[in-house]
Structures are given as structure tokens and as C-alpha cells.
């Protein structure tokens, strides 16, 4: 109800861009995945014991293939506001962004008040399956960031940047992985 009330009435559905937003922590306590090995051998994967990490804030618009991301040392409302600023700037003039996100403490509705061209829609609690960007995090971990060691925070930031850029270089991949039928607003 609040989203309907907060979305400007003059915005036609064909001028509304749906974005999915979330953040994920990447760091030295990294993912291990299957690896190729010679038959009859037991491969080894190094698992770090350190705890440095970074947060990758990401947003995708499946309809256009547009993406925005920011890497930060913490997850808080200050970085969330900066991420919303990027999304607002990426939204074309005359269009409105509906940003779908979970209910994390730093996903405050008031942050969207600073922008005329976006509205926030929070997902119900405990429903990560409704946010397709969760699959982006899985893709990044399985295809680019798994089974590796990071020397420190700067290395984590650099490797997350490389991973994100690897993901977004193919707009068709972005759209295919993140599109959902229930998001199509016009026929």
C-alpha cells in the first residue's frame, strides 16, 4: 500500500523501470566449489582463515540490462544512499525507477525521499527467492570468485570489481538471469 501511495501517479507503467537491489559480503572466508582434477587424485583448495571482507551493493534492471554497483567496507545507510544515488542517475530522464529490495536495517524508506525519480518496494521478510539479484551473487561466487585467496581488503575490492564487470559485460546474461514474469508491467 505504501509503495502505491509513494509512486507518483503521473508515472505511466510504460515509463517505470523495475530494479532489483541487494548487497553481499565477499571476503577471505570465501566459497569453495568443485574443481577439475586428474582421475584418481584428490584436489586441494585453499581456505583462508582471515576475516577481511567488503560489501558489494548491486542493482540490476532486467528490462534494459542496466546495472549499478558500489563496493564498500560496511553495509549501512550511508553507502545505501550512495547506491541509490547511482541508480537515480542511471534512470533516464522522464522515467521512474521502482527498486525492489529486502528489509535490511539500512534499506530505509526515507533514503528514497531524496530522489524524485525512484521509489522503494520492500520484499516480505524471509523471501530471498523473490529477489533475482541473489542469483547474481551465486553466479559471481561460482564463476569468478570461488577457490581463491585474497591478500587483503584492496585485493578483495579489485577482484569483486573484476567479477562484477565480468558479469555485466553481457547484457543478455543480466536480463536472462534476473528477468521474472511477474515484473512485466505492460503487455
Automatic annotation (TrEMBL):
<dbReference type="InterPro" id="IPR047655">
    <property type="entry name" value="Transpos_IS630-like"/>
</dbReference>
<protein>
    <recommendedName>
        <fullName>Tc1-like transposase DDE domain-containing protein</fullName>
    </recommendedName>
</protein>
<feature type="domain" description="Tc1-like transposase DDE">
    <location>
        <begin position="17"/>
        <end position="155"/>
    </location>
</feature>
<dbReference type="InterPro" id="IPR036397">
    <property type="entry name" value="RNaseH_sf"/>
</dbReference>
<dbReference type="Pfam" id="PF13358">
    <property type="entry name" value="DDE_3"/>
</dbReference>
<dbReference type="InterPro" id="IPR038717">
    <property type="entry name" value="Tc1-like_DDE_dom"/>
</dbReference>
Amino acid at each position: 500500500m505504501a509503495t502505491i501511495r509513494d509512486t507518483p501517479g503521473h508515472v505511466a507503467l510504460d515509463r517505470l523501470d523495475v530494479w532489483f537491489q541487494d548487497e553481499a559480503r565477499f571476503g577471505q572466508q570465501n566459497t569453495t566449489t568443485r574443481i577439475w582434477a586428474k582421475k584418481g587424485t584428490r584436489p586441494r583448495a585453499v581456505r583462508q582463515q582471515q576475516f577481511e571482507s567488503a560489501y558489494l551493493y548491486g542493482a540490476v534492471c532486467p528490462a534494459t540490462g542496466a546495472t549499478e554497483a558500489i563496493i564498500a567496507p560496511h553495509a549501512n545507510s550511508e553507502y545505501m544512499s550512495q547506491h541509490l544515488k547511482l541508480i537515480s542517475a542511471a534512470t533516464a530522464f522522464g522515467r521512474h525507477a521502482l527498486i525492489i529490495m529486502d528489509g535490511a536495517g539500512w534499506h530505509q524508506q526515507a533514503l528514497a525521499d531524496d530522489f524524485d525519480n525512484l521509489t522503494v518496494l520492500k520484499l516480505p521478510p524471509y523471501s530471498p527467492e523473490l529477489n533475482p539479484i541473489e542469483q547474481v551473487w551465486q553466479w559471481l561466487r561460482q564463476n569468478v570468485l570461488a577457490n581463491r585467496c585474497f591478500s587483503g581488503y584492496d585485493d578483495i575490492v579489485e577482484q569483486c570489481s573484476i567479477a562484477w564487470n565480468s558479469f555485466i559485460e553481457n547484457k543478455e546474461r543480466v536480463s536472462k538471469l534476473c528477468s521474472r514474469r511477474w515484473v512485466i508491467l505492460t503487455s
